[in-house]
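Throughout this chapter, every protein is written as a compact record of paired, labelled lines. The reader may check this reading against the record printed directly beneath this paragraph:
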Amino acid sequence: MTKAERIKKEKKQKAIGENCLFAVGINKYLQNQDCLDNCEQDATLVHNVFAKSNFLAMSTDSCLLISDDEAKTSKKAILDMLHERKGQFKKDKNIIFYYSGHGCTIDGEFYFFVSDSEKNAETMISLKELLESLKELYSGDRGSITVLIDACCERVGNKKGLQVQSDNYVLKYLKMAKGMGVIFSCTEGEYSLDCFNNQEISVFTSFLLDALKGQARALDGNFLTFASLYKYIEEQSNLVSMSNSQIKQHPTCLFEGKNIIYAIVDDEDIKTEQEKHQVFSFREKIEEALSELRFQISSAIIEKCIVIGSGEDGFNPSQNCVYMVCKELKKMGYLYYGWEKTLNNLYYYSAMFENGEGITIPYSVQKVFLEDMNYFLNSIPTYTNDFFEINLRS
């Protein structure tokens, strides 16, 4: 890079400014049934990408809040954290608020369901309340605000692309590119899937990380912008939803302003190859559940000394054997009312997949069934109740 090129780049970087990231990931909630698996990890991964990036200038005001200590992710703690920074930011700082956890919509308003939230709006944080708190961080002229929401719940940009514009135009554009944007991981009424990329990361955050690491298709020339980021996440999520009948996740966004620029990415940092992602499969979960059921029943036969009248050895129990053992366990007081329906559904889904029949099951049905299946398997009295648990962010 020549001296002149370096000076041009430094001017552009100064015009972009620093990125202040508030990354919030919540696994733990008041009720055990609301708890999630991967949200803390999602937030940590986003925070680490900013912290280690060669091109995303992360400010020292940034912070990571996860629910390992639930007091850190209560409504009061999150709002207090923002209030402490009131009026401390100038317009050359981009605020990015990332949230991974539960969310809901009440009377058309989105709410963040934080660690101490109950089933009423007063205990949650509304999107409106959050945006007002973020606006108050600026003194004088406001800079850019981005809210990235990985929870259930218009395009902007330069049509010609920044890569084909003159240096003077780009520099002027960067200085004026301020705005306030919100990106939702899905459309209202859809579920934000918590299992993706080998069940370690969500759909939304997986594509967000691709963009933050410099994926070429998420950039406008050498610039990572709000418009290019949203377009990439939207396109990739739509492709996944089209290719897998069990996934229905279509991101949406709100924006006011000109645009937001987060970084200028050097050519050597741009990634041209697409990351490979392993998509959650309901069929795989059914197969895992059936395998786990057979193992649990075999263990229960031995531990509870249940005699199988059919002459089976119990190490690979048939469907009939499973029912016989479950009836005995019910008599012993272990299984809950309705276990037969859960078991029938498991064998029904398994038979459909085994016969190669295509079935489309709404996410709401998947969620209820997998939760029932998890509860059923953990009610079987063995020393090995260590079954998987899937959570869909509602």
Remarks:
- The longest helix spans residues 282-303.
- Residues 154-159 have pLDDT under 50 and may be disordered.
- The chain has two domains: 3-269, 282-389.
- The chain has eleven helices and 13 strands.
